[in-house]
Design brief:
Thiol Ester Dehydrase, Chain A, alpha+beta, homotetramer
């Protein structure tokens, strides 16, 4: 399986399709069935005490799964999440970016299934893990 | 089981603890083991095409579960989501508020488990469903 | 939406397609988008202490979701579970049958989504809850 | 983190505590925060067509998570699954054993969180993936 889109192509696609989202994220790495995406943590992602909010971590795992799917199938604006199961395990450190590492476990014609581990940049402990299913629209 | 906090008390608590979040939501109803919470949809929640984003729906189910838990145990700022499994089933209508209807299925000393159905205000079809587990901190 | 198969039709279908499974279960009720299925608890379902095992409860929610799907679309032997998220909340009572109450939240052309509550027969507390997604094979 | 129980110790413990289950499974490998468990597929695990049933795969991921938890904390008969989210992705091959590879992502005082990949013995494609949470009883 060859990678169809590298980080530069994915970031350009995100800016075109989802400008308000693209400003918060950066695809940093793609590899066969894998991608790393960074959440650039700012004030809007924080909860009192400085920790990153649950919805912000959800947004990261959702985007990381989207990125790895597009990396493998090419630009498809309409793929949609149908299911996500997420476990929150440790509190993120205040004011530090997050990295979501996504891997695809199945890339079918209509469904893609994968999981994502979330860590603080440069730190080993897993803060959250998620599994996601994406519905891929029929290709013309 | 008696309700410890009514919608007014919950909304006041949210404004005090999570002001940036409280502006987006309103607790509309509490009942034993139940609560309804509204997401006041604005530009920030939308995706191209006018549909409400996945992270915004996640934020709604997370807050609805938090609201029903607080309604039953009283104000506890530190309860945290440990797990959420969410299914996205139908696209929300553009520019219409969402209602999350939460019910608690178990309220233990350390864990609360419940589920949430998400609909457009005044419409019957379920757009998303989620089940969530909350860890309740030990009471002093 | 009309019910296509009543409990008698569903039980007969199960006996024909899955005889080893059918002996353990009984569909007791169907209604539009709903079904009740009983697990007839025997030695094989128990763990030390007399409680029903997790895999037995999984088997019940899986079958209840299958039953409610078939009830609405008619006999399709090949529908398969693609995802199940299950929360175990309370221990079942020793030596008492279980009832799984399934409801369909979405019945699309290729995917069905629903949830199931598990209780001891005649008792109110919810022992487990599950949400499931089924892939429906294309109809010829 | 040191491994407290090796495969021999885990298999002996299972035979003592859950004899009816132990006959179906074999712990094959333990490593820090990891374990491999084999499901010895027999007639009772099959569905028509020869594929392994969903409940049998659930039983495998549940036991693999239990094994990796015990491997790290030592013999605790009472740990219970509180949540499992499982994705079924590919059909198992007829009449071939399954291997569940579990890794612990968090081992707290009261909760353990991990995930499991299921494959046919000696084959690479992932048939199912699951994430599980275990409640660990307070130690005396």
């Amino acid at each position: 399986m060859t990678v169809q889109m590298d980080p530069a192509a994915l970031n350009a696609f995100m800016w075109e399709e989802f400008p308000q989202v693209a400003a918060q994220f950066e695809v940093e790495r793609t590899a066969p069935m894998e991608a790393d995406v960074r959440l650039k943590v700012t004030e809007q992602h924080l909860r009192p005490g400085g920790t990153v909010s649950g919805p912000s971590m959800f947004a990261l795992v959702d985007l990381a799964m989207y990125a790895v799917t597009l990396a493998m199938i090419g630009p498809v604006a309409l793929a949609v999440t149908t299911n996500c199961s997420i476990d929150f395990m440790r509190k993120p450190e205040a004011g530090r970016d997050l990295i979501g590492t996504a891997r695809l476990l199945k890339l079918g014609k209509t469904l893609a299934v994968g999981d994502v581990l979330v860590r603080n940049v440069g730190a080993d402990p897993v803060l959250a893990r998620a599994s996601l299913t994406y519905a891929i629209p029929p290709r013309r």
